[in-house]
Structure formats: structure tokens, C-alpha cells
Write a structure and sequence with these properties.
By secondary structure, the protein is mostly helical. It has a domain at 10-75 and 141-216: Bacterial muramidase (Helicase, Ruva Protein, domain 3), CATH 1.10.8. It has helices at residues 3-6, 38-48, 54-62, 68-75, 78-81, 84-91, 94-106, 108-118, 122-133, 144-154, 159-175, 198-204, 220-233, 268-274, and strands at 16-17, 20-21, 30-31, 65-66, 142-143, 184-185. The protein has a two-stranded antiparallel sheet. Helix 2 (38-48) packs antiparallel against helix 3 (54-62) and helix 2 crosses helix 11 (159-175). It starts with a helix and ends with a helix. 36% of the residues are buried.
Length: 276
């Protein structure tokens, strides 16, 4: 069976950007013309230099729809406004714990192998997949092509980041011979069981069951190995502590806000001072 057939049906992260504006109206799904958008033309040229045909790229990008709902979802993301105890209540539930046990039992061989190969405990791998997609139950219903095109060409501050992700996504789809418009994920373009963004997919996804494909959308075994590989590549130390108890001050530092993306100073010396 060809790779294209094997992957068929797979459910695989008005602003002026690059010279031409595509204002998004109240209704969703605005058409997109890549050949009249300088940012899209630059992306096509860049990917063409990496071996992707320009006619294929333009044809795929013409399928993209710019969606206001994607921009709205980015602004309303729970992690932007919930405090930890509120966020925790979403994910640490009795049902999720019980289904995590079921996931471990169903995939105990793959989890044991991943722990042996990468040194990442099976509980950690399971927890990540549980938080990201409820063990694969919620892998996203947004067309990834639409999400990434919208964020690449319409987001007011993160266009460059999402343009890179859009390019990586198109490379993945081309390499795996699938229609980019058929692939689903989160509103931010995260994909599959572990919700890898496209550049993470390229860098850390592994074919853990040796079937010739790195399939994070439908294959929990590949997802298990890929999550473990991601941790290992980011410096996971087998047997090391995963958290340390800490006592904070009664009053938070004035320059630290809830859900601040980059804390002011995370050096050990600064953190030790905060805890005194």
C-alpha cells in the first residue's frame, strides 16, 4: 500500500503583514490568495528552495481560509487568564485519572519501551497525553492549514513565528503525501495525541512502532515514543527530581504577574531571594 493511501483520512499549532491586508469580517472563513500576498509569496519562495514545488504550495495555500474565530480563540486561551488552581481543576479529575490508568493498561508495552529507551517514566508520558488531548479523545477540530495561515498572515504580533510553523506544516504534508486541508488540530496549529506544533513534529516525532510513518494523529504508540523523545531531547535526567518544594513570600513581587510568559528573573539566586 502506498504511503498516500496509508495516510488517507488522517486527522493530522485586518492586520497588515508583508504588504497586503486581508481584513477579517465578522463572518468566518475568508478566502485567501497567496499569489497576491507578499508574505505568502516569500514563504513559497523559501520552501521552493527546500525542494517543494511552487505550484503545489500555491495550490495548497489557496485552500486556506482566514478565520476570525482562530484569532478570537488565541485571545481567549484559558492559560492566558486562569490561575493555577483554576487550570488544575480542568485537568485533574477523577475521570481523567481513571482513564489514564486505562490508557496505561492498553499501551503498557509501548510505555515500558519508551521508559527503557528514553528514561522518561510511563506516568509522565501518560500525564502529558492526558493533559494535551484527554488520551487522544480531543485532538482538535480546526483545519490546521486555516489556523496557521490565519495566524501567520493576520496575527498582530506573532506572524513570523506562525509563518515558520505554516512552512513546517506544509513540508510535513508534502513529505507524507497528504492533503494539508484534511488535517485537523487546535486553533493554534497543534496536532495529534501530544499536540505538537509542526516544528516540534519535525524535530521530535518518532516512528515508535516501526511501520514507516511518524503518525501522531492516529497512532498512540508513535505519540508515546515522541513525547518521551521530546523530554529526552530537552534534557530529561532519568531518576532526577521532577519538582522541588518551595515557600514563596506572603506578597508576590511587584514585577511578577499571573500567567506572565517570561518571569523577570529565574536564576537560582533570584529564586532563593524570593523564597526568603
Amino acid at each position: 500500500m502506498s504511503r498516500a493511501k496509508r495516510m488517507a483520512g488522517v486527522g493530522m499549532v485586518g492586520i497588515m503583514v508583508g504588504g497586503l491586508a486581508f481584513p477579517l469580517m465578522a463572518e468566518d472563513a475568508q478566502d485567501f490568495d497567496p499569489e497576491h500576498h507578499s508574505g505568502a509569496r516569500a514563504l513559497v519562495k523559501s520552501l521552493e528552495g527546500e525542494g517543494l514545488p511552487s505550484d503545489w504550495l500555491n495550490r495548497q495555500l489557496r485552500q486556506a481560509k482566514l478565520r476570525q474565530s482562530v484569532l478570537d480563540a488565541m485571545d481567549g486561551a484559558a492559560e492566558r487568564h486562569l490561575e493555577w488552581h483554576e487550570y488544575r481543576d480542568i485537568f485533574i479529575t477523577q475521570q481523567r485519572i481513571e482513564e489514564g490508568v486505562e490508557f496505561q493498561q492498553a499501551h503498557q508495552d509501548a510505555l515500558a519501551e519508551a521508559e527503557d529507551v528514553y528514561g522518561v517514566p510511563h506516568d509522565i508520558i501518560t500525564a502529558i497525553i492526558g493533559v494535551e488531548t484527554y488520551y487522544g479523545r480531543h485532538r482538535g477540530e480546526h483545519p490546521v492549514l486555516d489556523s496557521l495561515a490565519t495566524l501567520a498572515f493576520e496575527h498582530p504580533t506573532r506572524g513570523d513565528f506562525f509563518t515558520r510553523e505554516l512552512g513546517a506544516f506544509l513540508q510535513i504534508a508534502h513529505d507524507q503525501e497528504v492533503d494539508p486541508s484534511s488535517l485537523k488540530g487546535s486553533y493554534a496549529g497543534a496536532m495529534g495525541y501530544p499536540q505538537f506544533i509542526p516544528t516540534s513534529y519535525q524535530a521530535y516525532a518518532v516512528d515508535f512502532d516501526d511501520d514507516g510513518l511518524r503518525d501522531l494523529w492516529n497512532n498512540p504508540v508513535d505519540a508515546i515514543g515522541s513525547v518521551a523523545n521530546y523530554f529526552a531531547e530537552h534534557g530529561w535526567q532519568e531518576g532526577g527530581a521532577i519538582y522541588y518544594p518551595a515557600d514563596g513570600p506572603d506578597t508576590a513581587p511587584s514585577d511578577l504577574t499571573v500567567n506572565q510568559i517570561t518571569p523577570p528573573d529565574t536564576s537560582m539566586e533570584a529564586l532563593e531571594q524570593v523564597g526568603r
